[in-house]
Design goal:
heterodimer, A: alpha/beta, Nucleotidyltransferase, domain 5, globular, B: alpha/beta, Beta-Lactamase, Rossmann fold, five-stranded antiparallel beta sheet, five-stranded parallel beta sheet, 18 helices, elongated
Chain lengths: 117, 406
């Protein structure tokens, strides 16, 4: 059975905040982990309400995001949408881990670095 | 870099983390790329992240502040040292109002060492500001013009008494709000404020609506508006629409504090403050025979007149920004102002619908605005001078505008 996933995006990484994301990546993931379809979505403006509407209208089963406010989190959960939040990382590694079925809330996929000023 | 940082400060301050941990406000040390070097204890509590878990990560993913996402504080033209008020979402999914002050730290030869962000939790201050505005804001009515200031100064004084009040003013000037403000500031504020619109309805039904109705053989009373407002305030809007019979009953109530429910021969005493409003001139209504003279003289113990918006001078700009802030928050948009052209166009308008019309215009503009500034194309088409202005309608045009703003 395929599952539909929405990832909030900012530049080439998971958006730090759900309510401020203006882009979303819609994926259809097969049981085998194969990405069956991949579609980018550009929002007219940042809005947590509209992202929730988008998730519901597209029959999304899983939302992947960074920080998310309590009210959105519980609303999506109430609508039986799984929320994998507090995910930090570049988009592609996140998609790969998601496809492998190994993505968990709070996962950090950035390479850590501290450089000079 | 961290080593150099610790070397520079280490001689005078051997235990930097302990020093930062002892401070009551949140602190985050960042490298030149905005990666986290360390958080102090206060910021660990605020964000919900442990310093070891987030070391080396981009700060926008740790602080998750609106400012980080919509325009990094370190890249602002006014530079480090200036504070910004914003909000962040912590690991426990709580949205927290914060003030962030970025500080660029340098050594004694003015070489950059690191960036320090001071993050203050504003929750308590915001709560207090909301509480104070509720207490001193006279309900929801606001104004800065001399005419409105005079009325707002009177509100707390008039609120202490139970004399009837008549509020006059054109439609949309805020008569209902003023009545509610007087009630809220009065000792009756914990009791009900009942609003009744005197629209056209059969006289018998109106009697029952206002004064209650005695039902069946037992005479059980179905409460009317007076009974509902017991101990509080009954506010009748547009009294000129009230039939003369009911006006006589109200005049009797104002004389001796009793009402007669429909279908009952037994008058009852009620403790209600009566307020009323009309958009017309009461004297003219008396002349036309639509308002009983005896009722008019009783209800005008206190009379307040709300001026038209175009007679309220500086209130236009003040209310414009007041409503803008209100609707920006309601629609969760980051609208910070209005363009000079749009402001000029609004200022030239006559506002026959007064404050209500202005409120509607701002609500519309805030609803469709996708940038941080309200421009002419966001204003409703019926405003004079709008029709010939271009409106971004195609998705590509809209997207371009949005791209710029994000």
């Amino acid at each position: 059975m395929e599952r539909r996933v929405l990832i909030t995006v900012a530049r080439d990484e998971v958006a730090p905040r759900f309510d401020l994301a203006t882009e979303a990546l819609l994926l259809t993931v097969a049981d085998s982990g194969e990405i069956v379809s991949r579609k980018s979505f550009l929002m007219a403006h940042a809005s947590g309400d509209e992202l929730c509407d988008l998730a519901l209208s597209r029959d999304i089963g899983t939302v992947v995001c960074g920080g998310i406010e309590d009210e959105y989190f519980h609303y999506l959960r109430w609508k039986r949408i799984e929320v994998i939040d507090s995910v930090m990382g570049p988009l592609e590694p996140v998609v790969s881990r998601l496809a492998a079925g190994a993505l968990r809330a709070g996962d950090i996929l950035f390479e850590r670095s501290v450089t000079g000023v | 870099m961290t080593k150099r940082f610790e070397e520079l400060i280490g001689s005078d301050c051997p235990d930097l983390p302990a020093l930062l941990d002892s401070l009551p406000m949140g602190m985050v040390l960042l490298d030149g790329q905005g990666h986290v070097i360390m958080l102090n204890k206060a910021l660990e509590e605020l964000t919900g992240f442990h310093r070891d878990d987030v070391r080396g990560l981009p700060c926008r993913h740790v602080l998750r502040s609106r400012a980080c996402v919509q325009g990094c504080p370190h890249e602002r033209p006014d530079g480090p040292g200036s504070s910004i008020e914003t909000d962040c979402i912590n690991r426990h999914r709580r949205k927290i109002p914060v003030r962030i002050t970025p500080v660029r730290m340098t050594d004694d030869q003015n070489r950059p060492v690191c960036i320090l962000d001071v993050v203050e939790d504003l929750t308590a201050l915001k709560e207090m500001a909301a509480r104070l505005s509720q207490v001193t804001g006279q309900g929801q009515i606001v104004g800065r013009s001399p005419a409105m200031e005079k009325i707002l100064r009177l509100v707390p004084v008039l609120a202490q008494h139970s004399s009837p009040v008549l509020i006059t003013g054109e439609t949309g000037t805020g008569k209902d709000l003023l009545a509610e403000s007087i009630h809220k500031a009065s000792p009756r504020s914990r009791e009900p404020f009942v609003r009744f619109s005197c629209g056209p309805m059969p006289s018998e039904l109106l009697d029952a609506e206002l004064f209650g109705r005695a039902q069946g053989e037992t005479g059980e009373l179905k409460p009317g508006r007076f009974q509902q407002a017991q101990g509080g305030t009954l506010y009748l809007s547009e009294i000129a629409d009230l039939p003369l019979t009911q006006q006589a009953s109200l005049a009797r109530f104002l004389d001796d504090g009793i009402i007669l429910p429909a279908g009952s021969a037994k008058p009852i005493r009620v403790n209600v403050r009566l307020m009323a409003s009309t958009a017309g001139s009461p004297e003219k209504l008396v002349q036309e025979g639509r308002l009983r003279e005896d009722f008019f003289h009783r209800i005008t113990a206190i009379r307040l007149h709300l001026p038209r918006l175009k007679d309220r001078g500086e209130d236009l700009g003040f209310l414009l920004h007041h409503f803008l802030a209100h609707y920006a928050a309601r629609f969760k948009k980051n609208i910070t102002g209005i363009s000079p052209k749009a402001l000029r166009l609004i200022s030239c308008h006559d506002f026959p619908g007064n404050v209500r019309e202005l409120k509607n215009i701002v609500e519309f503009a805030a609803m469709i605005c996708t940038e941080d500034t309200i421009r002419i194309e966001h204003l409703p088409g019926h405003l004079p001078g709008i029709a010939d202005k271009p409106v971004p309608s195609t998705p590509s045009q809209t997207r371009k505008g949005l791209r710029k703003s994000t």
